[in-house]
Amino acid sequence: MLRYFTAGETHGKCLTVIIEGVPAGVRISLDEINNQLAKRQKGYGRGGRMLIEKDTAEILSGIRGGITLGSPIAIKIENRDWKNWSDIMGTESSNGEKAVEFPRPGHADLSGGMKYNHHDLRNVLERASARETAARVAVGALVRQIIEPFGITLNSRVVSIGEVADAANPDSDGFYARVADSPVGFGDADSEKKAMEYIDNIKKSGESCGGVVETAVKGVPVGLGSYVHYDRKLDARLAFSVMSVQAIKGVEIGMGFGAAMTCGSNVHDEIVYENKFRRETNNAGGIEGGMSNGEPIIVRAAMKPIPTLYNPLKTASIIDKKEHKASVERSDACAVPACSVVVEAAVAFEIANAFVEKFGGDCMEDIKASYDAYEKRLKHY
User: Fold this and answer.
1) Helix (H) or strand (E) holding 248
2) What does each C-alpha distance from 324 to 128, 315, 321 come to in angstroms?
3) d(CA 335, CA 159)
4) Over the stretch 245-278, which tens digit does the pLDDT of each residue have?
5) Model pTM?
């Protein structure tokens, strides 16, 4: 079983993560991790922080000569902005500057302050910040290298930003190459232009905007997850992982909420046999009964607008309880393209985790042997 823990504050010294359960013998490319970190920092509508940070991962343990050892893997991502915050965010002493007493509506500020009895809400926002997702992206970029040798691939796109939807067909040739070159993660050039204009108008008005992102996973073998126990269902684990990403307010798989608005014959995917079992459609999004069914796994997530507004909303001070305007931290007008990278990492972790559980072993040779035996058996089913 894979698991990981992250640590670090948005203006602290660094982000760190420890990953446990990665089998020995996985060849790891640091460049692949850094490429995903770079993708997370891109996107139209990002704020000034992205001009400061150039995220790169430093592997501290668990890998030797580019090969995993089977022991816990530690990764460090430095915060370059730390030098400007060392007196404020020092672990041994702090000058108390930039204290926050005006909680932002829609943020963890107030609930977190009340829960942990903080009277400076910076103690909350520094950890609740989406800066933490850089560590998660590093995790996803590493563990996907466990499953890629077995033909499993992941790609993400932005479905919509605010009121603007991408008109492109994700099944068209070269779609994901166009998405990779798009500043808004769209595949259609006209839709891209409309989205950028929309973000510009949002930014000018001091607002922020959200959107919908999608991750598609192809090459997943039948049978990851389980119908036997509720906590082993693959869709449940994916929903949990994706919903834990900052600012995500909804998750759907395949047809999702659309399945509630039509009859069963328009929802359920008919089964055919042509040398192997397959579905003629994929409304289920690659998961039935909590298990992968061999079709592409399609996960979509709804990201709310970022809570920090440059035209701030009304709030109340935690000190004098009087009405004030909410605090303003440096922020983005739109981070939806970056969110697609984070969601892809969250999905990658759960797919890799389910894969390791299904074909588990202490090293890649054992996993491959188990995988090959399983695939051989399925050919005769």
Assistant:
1) strand 248-253
2) 22, 5, 9
3) 13
4) 999 999 999 999 999 999 999 999 999 999 999 9
5) 0.95
